[in-house]
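Lab manual, section 2.4: Encoding a predicted structure.

Procedure: take the sequence of the chain (417 residues), apply the prediction step described in section 2.3, and record the output as structure tokens. A sample record is shown.
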Amino acid sequence: MKRILIILLVLCVSAGAFAGGTKEAAGEKAGADVVKIGAIYPLTGGVAPIGLNIKKGLDFAVEEINGSGGIMGKQVKIIYGDSTGDPKVGMAEAERLITREDVSIIIGSYQSSVSNVVSEVAQRYETPNITAISTADVITTRGYDYFFRMAPTNMLFLRDMIQYCADVNDKYKLGYKTVGIITGNDLLGQESRKWAKYWSEKLGLNVISEVQYTINAVDLSSEVLTVKKANPDILVIDPYISDAILITKTLHEQGFTPKIVIGKATGLIDPSYIPTVGALANGVTTATEWNVDIVKAEAVNAKFNKKYGINMNGHSAEVYTAMYIVKEAIEKAKSTDRKAIKTALEDLEINEKFSNGQKIILPYDKIKFDDYENAAGKNTNQNKYVKLTVVQIQDGKYITVWPFEAAAKEPIVPLKW
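Recorded output:
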């Protein structure tokens, strides 16, 4: 009897070992069949419309890539994390994607406050993290060598926004001198206020009113009234989508018409902005990383529009490009190993088009992650070749109005509401 029990025990152990070995082998095969990439965006919550639009850009790029053979012959699988717009949730999602899902790289995370903490998690676990959109300068001035940013920083955004105002002032002899600022009280808003003041002073403009609000506000009457009393020539804003809608409506309700209203490519380029506020948006200007009238992007945008029924915007165009950067880096590394991908990203230089022939569809022709110093501090792995355009909403459409040599039409100044 004892002998029989021993034999049964041996058989059970052997069977368990065989089953475990088979499962492990199957897991390795499944892992070998796909390239797992993490992506963290707000897919629910107050800024979900932007997150879901970003997702379209990423999914569209993955569909193209998988349709043409994938990466190193493997299909790409995006594993999404929903930040809900909350940094704490974003941090937890980063932990999950790295430790449980075993992704090779993370793309994300739209809001700078979320990207700030996601990049900390990625640095700790030595996992590459690339952002196509988040702009807070601090994310690339901390020396994190696993974080890569292709987007302009807040400093660069505000530089070009204020430069546009100065150039319009000079070209049309407008004599505008004063600036008001309305931004959120989060990381993004704090930096935008800082750089709006910095560049205004550099370009001879005087900031006479600064107001901050709690993001996802339900009423901004007092904030707008405060700035209205100061009556600046130029109003600088940087709202997420719900706040962008509310600010626009409140400006009209209170009869406050600054001569220029200019914002960052945050809520003002969200696909739901113009449909929601309608003609109230006409005349508003915003700095952006992309616009539909960029000639070299026409073919890609036409396919995107056919699939989703909307045009790309700066967010979807940037994350689309980020996915091609990831593809290029992994193929350059010849591996899905995280450290190998990091090294490949550090050495990457893309001029005009990717190795598969796909053009850079953004307003610039070079992508390279460099370490360099500017007024914000020492940047690590920041693409310094980024360029911005300023678009104005005219008759319900985004029209490129600056730089003047690239403009589709002249800007309408002063603002007429």
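Check your result against the sample. Residues 290 and 314 are 5 Å apart (CA to CA).
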